[in-house]
Design brief:
Distance between the termini of chain B: 26 Å
Number of strands of chain B: 0
Radius of gyration of chain B: 23 Å
Radius of gyration of chain A: 19 Å
Structural class of chain A: alpha/beta
CATH architecture of chain B: Orthogonal Bundle
Strand order of the largest sheet of chain A: 6-7-8-3-9-10
Strand content of chain A: 15-25%
Largest interface: A-B, 27 and 21 residues
Oligomer: heterodimer
CATH class of the largest domain in chain A: Alpha Beta
CATH topology of chain B: MetI-like fold
Order of helices and strands of chain A: EEEHEEEHHHEHEHEEH
CATH class of chain B: Mainly Alpha
Distance between the termini of chain A: 46 Å
Number of helices of chain B: 10
Shape of chain A: globular
Order of helices and strands of chain B: HHHHHHHHHH
CATH topology of the largest domain in chain A: Rossmann fold
Shape of chain B: globular
Strand content of chain B: under 5%
Largest sheet of chain A: 6 strands, mixed
CATH superfamily of chain B: MetI-like
Number of domains of chain A: 2
Largest sheet of chain B: none
Structural class of chain B: mainly alpha
């Protein structure tokens, strides 16, 4: 369980606004987002599609910068993508022309680490994620769950303080997903990473997060921030778990309804 | 019957029928052997052509020319294609000129090629490289331009420099397209080498066919044509294997077969 005292912030999101389009009909994807993620904290961004949660994550990653406001991550203002904020993507963004081993080594090679160091680090990571026997396979020969393990190993190789995860387990079946969630929690506890995790899965967010940031549908704003005061490993059938789930479902459904109304109006 | 045997039988039935009918008609005197000699005569002539050492020499000179021309054309096309695929500016400057030149068949350059390079191998190299150039170029450009943005994002997130982004991400990601271009380009180069040999040189398979025509050796013409066909098939099979190896990571391997 996270301590009650607020830890030193590792990610600070300050008045972040993002609009798309150039003429009058701008879409405001994010509107004045303001919150911190403490060092070593696991925060989930929750909301229906179109609420801007991925947009926010991409802004933290530095892929698309905010129209207004500022993001400070690992002590620096975000202006471009960088290996201090490792990202695990929704799609399998592994390089298909590289073996598992080369994929994991890529970030270290970019940093021009000595060859032997790379080999050792990659070997240890493959072992940690139970990938050793697949080291020389290509991604096309792996299952979805395996691929996301490789994607996680690839960003862990960077040893970045921050992990950004964009619905990384969304495409997996329920059992594989639970498995990887546990794996992620294990890694998080071991390595004390700060994690910002985007999901539309209510149960997933309660299972993983210290705090859940619920977002509103267009413009994307912070609707509320819900702490999850449950001990880990969390029991998904516990009454407190279900209370939270009911509560969060209601809030997410409100936004989902707004989304549907919006889409009906557009049609 | 095992399916492989059945497939084999199916694949040889039509050629066998054609050859037998052809032989029969020639023997019956239906066709003038000067116009179309019997396959048996073509075969004998082909063996003769092979044993005299003329065929290996001709094949070697044709292969030499096609290889040189292909390498020149492909190298230039790769360099230009990678630049045009990666840089919008390079594309904007160069694309109009290339689009204008692209529909001109290499054959149309024959007079100029002779004027510029004289006779012998140089005009042949020029024409062949021109033939290989455009297929490789167009495919390389589209390959680089269609690299999935997710790979670029992932690489930048992992700290890739501009050059690493280019050589370790964009080039390999474009490889399936590039290999397609290379195979098509080789096919065109092989057509052009035969044409070039009919014009500017006095060796090679293309030259030999034209020479045989002078003497009405239609059996030798056909023997030469068959050699061209076998050589082309062999090289394409080799390129297919190369691309299968290079693209062993790729899902759509069927494309490379």
């Amino acid at each position: 369980m996270s301590s009650a005292s607020v830890p030193e912030p590792e990610i600070q999101i300050r008045g972040v606004t993002k609009s798309f389009g150039t003429n009058g009909s701008d879409i405001v994807a994010l509107d004045g987002i303001d919150f911190d993620v403490g060092r070593g904290e696991l925060v989930c961004l929750l909301g229906p599609s179109g609420c801007g949660k991925s947009t926010l994550l991409n802004a933290v990653a530095g892929f698309s910068l905010p129209t207004a406001g500022e993001i400070v991550a690992a002590g620096r203002v975000v202006t471009e993508p960088g290996p201090d904020r490792g990202m695990v993507f929704q799609e399998y963004a592994l390089f298909p022309w590289m073996t598992v081993r080369s994929n994991v080594a890529f970030g270290l090679e970019m940093r021009r680490e000595p060859k032997q160091r790379i080999e050792e680090t990659v070997g240890a990571l493959l072992h940690k994620l139970h990938l050793t026997e697949f080291a020389d396979r290509f991604p096309k020969d792996l299952s979805g769950g395996m691929r996301q393990r490789v994607a996680i190993a690839r960003v862990l190789a960077l040893d970045s303080p921050i992990l950004l995860m964009d619905e990384p387990f969304g495409a997996l079946d329920a059992l594989t997903r639970r498995n990887l969630q546990d794996e992620l929690l294990r890694i998080w506890t071991d390595l004390k990473k700060t994690i910002l995790f985007v999901t539309h899965g209510i149960e997933e967010s309660i299972y993983l997060a210290d705090r859940i940031v619920v977002m509103t549908y267009r413009p994307g704003r912070v609707k509320t921030i819900v702490p999850v005061p449950l001990d880990r490993p969390r029991d998904v059938s516990a009454p407190q778990f279900n209370d939270l789930k009911r509560n969060l479902s209601r809030m997410v459904m409100e936004e989902q309804d707004r989304r549907e109304q919006d889409e009906t109006r557009l049609n | 019957m095992p399916p492989r045997a059945r497939a084999l039988i199916r694949s040889v039935v039509v050629p066998a029928v054609i050859v037998l009918a052809w032989e029969g008609m020639s023997r019956a005197g239906v066709i003038n052997p000067m116009i179309l000699p019997a396959p048996s005569r073509v075969l004998l002539r082909w063996i003769d052509y092979l044993e005299s050492g003329e065929l290996p020499r001709d094949a070697a000179s044709s292969l030499y020319r096609v290889t040189m021309g292909f390498l020149i054309g492909t190298t230039l096309a790769l360099l230009l294609g990678l630049a045009m695929g990666a840089s919008n500016k390079a594309y904007a400057y160069l694309n109009p000129v290339l689009q204008l030149l692209r529909p001109i068949p290499p054959i149309a350059y024959v007079p100029l090629a002779i004027l510029w390079f004289g006779l012998g191998n140089p005009p042949a190299f020029f024409l062949i490289s021109l033939g290989a150039f455009f297929p490789v170029l167009m495919n390389t450009i589209s390959g680089v331009r269609s690299v999935d943005a997710i790979y670029i994002r992932a690489a930048r997130n992992l700290g890739a420099s501009r050059s690493a982004l280019f050589f370790r991400v964009m080039v390999p990601a474009a490889m399936p397209h590039i290999m397609t271009g290379i195979r098509v380009g080789f096919g065109v180069a092989f057509i052009v080498v035969i044409v070039a040999e009919m014009i500017a040189v006095n060796s090679g398979l293309g030259y030999r066919i034209l020479e045989a025509r002078e003497y009405f050796w239609s059996d030798k013409i056909i023997a030469g044509m068959i050699t061209i066909g076998l050589l082309g098939l062999g090289i394409d099979a080799a390129l297919a294997r190369l691309s299968k190896y290079l693209l062993r990571w790729h899902r759509g391997l069927e494309l490379a077969r």
